[in-house]
Amino acid sequence: MSGPWMEAEMMGSWGHTRRLLSTVLLLLSAVLFCSISTAGAAEGELKVTLKNNLLAGRVGEPIDIGLILQPEILPGGFLYSVIAEVLEQPEGPPCEVVSGVPSIRATCVQEGSYRLRVKVSLLQKSSCGGASAVPLLDETVMLAVSP
């Protein structure tokens, strides 16, 4: 086969290949941009610490476990994930823990010593359809609850 039919067939194939290549390059550049912007926001610019890891309170009264967040307000697409879990407590009803920013609230219904684990991560959801998490804090807090 030769002549104009052959040229038209080859040109159609090349046009399809060019479109496919440009789409792949566009997707790769979007993925690269999203990963660079996530890394820049997650490294060196953020710091999370506990205000105090030894706290005292009374039975039935809330105890605030304060967090120091730098920065406290994050740009769009980013948020802090705060998880607090009771590791040790006296026998009996569980301590009620409500995780939040900038503090965690624990209400214990009996006296004794409580040990909690506090984990804070930076979550990022991009317009590229992905999500990532960067751990920022993983520490233990001790609560001494009196009557």
Which characteristics define this entry?
single chain, 147 residues, alpha+beta, Immunoglobulin-like, 2 domains, four-stranded antiparallel sheet, four-stranded mixed sheet, 8 strands, 27% helix
In sequence order, what are the helices and strands, one letter per element? HEEEEEEEE
- Rounded to an integer, what's the Rg over CA atoms? 27 Å
- List segments where confidence is low: pLDDT < 50 over at least 5 consecutive residues: 24-43
DSSP strand count = 8
Largest sheet: 4 strands, antiparallel
Rounded mean pLDDT is: 80
Detailed description of the structure:
The chain has 147 residues and is an alpha+beta fold. The chain has two domains: 1-43; 47-146, Immunoglobulin-like (Sandwich). The chain is 27% helix and 46% strand. The chain contains one helix and eight strands, in the order αββββββββ. The chain has one helix spanning 4-42; strands at 47-50, 54-58, 62-70, 78-88, 96-98, 103-107, 112-125, 131-146. The strands form two sheets. It has a four-stranded antiparallel β-sheet, with no helix packed on it. A hairpin with a 5-residue loop joins β7 and β8. The radius of gyration is 27 Å and the shape is elongated. The termini are far apart.
Summarize the structure.
This protein has 1 helix and 8 strands. The chain has 147 residues and is of the alpha+beta class.
Topology:
Blueprint: H1 4-42, E1 47-50, E2 54-58, E3 62-70, E4 78-88, E5 96-98, E6 103-107, E7 112-125, E8 131-146
Parallel strand pairs: 2-8
Antiparallel strand pairs: 1-3, 3-6, 4-7, 5-6, 7-8
